C-alpha cells in the first residue's frame, strides 16, 4: 500500500514555490490547506496535524473564517515545519540552518552583493537541488544585474557577475531537466565572460557546455567544447583545477567516442594537475576537486567497459563526497550501483540502491530523479532475483512519493544519455 505524503514533506517540497510563498505572505491558511490537500494530504490528516477539527478545517478552506491569532500561526508553523520568516514569525526552534536559511540569505544578499548571493545560492543548490532555486537566480539577474548592464557608467565587473549568474542559472535549469534552457543560458554566459575579460570563467563556461553536449549524446561537440575551453584557458591566469576539469571533460568525450588510450591519458593529465594544485581559486568558479575527478573517472571507465577500474573510482567518489553535498553524493551512489549491475554483482547494487532510497524525497533535482529511474531500468532486467524484485517494489513506492512532492518542477520525460556525473554549479 502506498504511504500517503505527510504535510511536512509536502511543505518541504514547496518551499521554493512562489505560490506557497505568496500564500504564506498573505497568511491565508485556508489557501494553504487547499494547496496541501491538492498535493495528496487528506483533510483528516491536515486536521490532525494542525490539531483542529475537520469542521474548522473546512471553514478555513471555504473562506468562512480566517486564522488571526499569533499563537495559531506559530502552532501551524511548528506542525507543518514552515520557516517562521515565511509567516512573519521569529525563526522556529527546529529550523535547519540549510538549505532554507541559505536560500533566504541569498535572496537578501541579492540586493547588494552579487558574489555573496552566488555563494549562498550555490550552497543551497548543493543541498536542495537547482529546481527550487532557478527562479530566484533568474529574478536576481533580471532585477539586480540587468539594469546595471544597461548603465553606461558600470565597469567590466558587472559583466563578470552577469556571466557567472547566467551560467549558474544554466546549471539549475539542467538540474531541473530543462537542457535546452540550460544551453541558452550557457550561450549567453560565454560572450558576457569575454566582455568582462575573465578568460578563466569563459573557459569554465566552455567546460559546462561540454558537459551539456555529453548529456544530449553529442560526444563530438563535447570534445569541441572541451578543447575550446582549454585554448581559452591558455590565454588567462593558470588555474590547475580549471584545466583539470577541461581535461576531464575531454576524457569523457573521448570515452564516449570509444577512444580508450587518449581518454585515459587525458584523465592522467587531470589527476597530475589536481595533485600539484596549491589552492588556486577564482571568485566565480565552482571548485573541481578529487571527488569530482573520481566521479567523472568512474563514468569514463564505465563507458570504456573497464568495469573494475570504474568500480574503484566510483567507490572513491562516494568516500570523498561529504553528506553536505546531497545531490553529488546521490549521483555518485547511482554511478556506483550502475557499475555493480554491469559487473552483475546484484547484491552490492541493491545495497547501494537501499542507501539511495534514503535520499531526501524533496531534493529538488530532476537530474537525480532521472538517474534513479535509469538505475531502476537497469535492475528491471534482473527482476527474477528476489532481492532485486523486493528493491524494485520499495523503489516504486518511493518514486511515487518523490513525483508527488516534485510535481511543480518535474518537466515531461526527456532524452539524453543518462550520464550521472556529480558536477555542481
UniProtKB/TrEMBL annotation:
TM ranges: none
Pfam families listed in its UniProt record: HTH_31
Domain HTH cro/C1-type as annotated: residue spans: 31-87
Name assigned to this protein: Helix-turn-helix domain-containing protein
